[in-house]
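REVIEWER CHECKLIST
Item 1: Sequence provided? yes
Item 2: Single chain? yes
Item 3: Sequence as submitted:
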Amino acid sequence: MFSRRFLRIKVIKALYAHYKSGSESMPASEKNLIASIDKAYDLYFQMLRLVADVKAYADERIELGLKKKLPTYSDLHPNRNFVNNAVIAQIEESEALNVRLEKQGLGWGRYPELVKHLYTLMTESEYYKKYMQLTENRYTTDKSLVEDFYIETVQNNDMLSDAVEEQSILWCDDIDFALIMVVRTLENCREKQDELPLRREYKSEDDLAFTKELFRKTIVNFTEYQEYIEKFTTNWDVERIAFLDNIIIACAMAEILCFDSIPVKVTLDEYIEIAKYYSTPASSLFINGVLDKIVEALRSEDRIHKTGRGLLE
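Item 4: Structure as written out by the authors:
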């Protein structure tokens, strides 16, 4: 399931798109927000299938070697450790995964060069060479091989990123989040399972409600939140402050004021971390300073009311 941080990032991006496009329809923008999360969930399934396509390519290479007119000894006696990997077999045979792939029209059939590229990188890696030297395949070593494939070969691969972006512009920044879910899935795989332990899109209905409510509250109160930002940026030209910074601060304010069960410190930490990756280099320090002043003002006005877990600091 997607983390709350991922959902916050999606809300911030949806808010940015909403205001930059000049949209006057909050329901339409909210629909786009939820669609972008659903699309990221599709990417999780797409990425999970990838190792099976690489294995299929390895199978084809073995078959071609066996059909050579003048086969070598290695052609006639291929090392089948990788193609017999038990975890990859579970991925291939997963009914739930295959149903989702077919329903959403997902797969890597249009990208044979990418599959070949990843196979080549994998075969050149130390983790693969050690795995192929094993005289006995065990489930634990099979699982480690697949995890290493995603962490060391797939992650930060430019050719993969280009292919993913070509399939959907909504996927541009979602690869790392999808890979985290893939690795979590692999960690929970067990031998002789009837079905893959696929991750849910949301941890609970509360997370979906949180996403929608955060988006709505920020839009409804955006003008008021901007007034606070202007008040505590007296030495700044508000028009010159990165608009994304305004969005991040407004979103943080909505969470502080409207979600009683979330501690203020958790909210501040989350949005400052998001700013480090998604705004300008100086944004996290700027946002940290402005939010500290805003929180102090809101406390003095007795507007922050936390309950339960929200009282933790």
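Item 5: Key structural point noted by reviewer: The mean pLDDT is 93.
Item 6: Recommendation: ____
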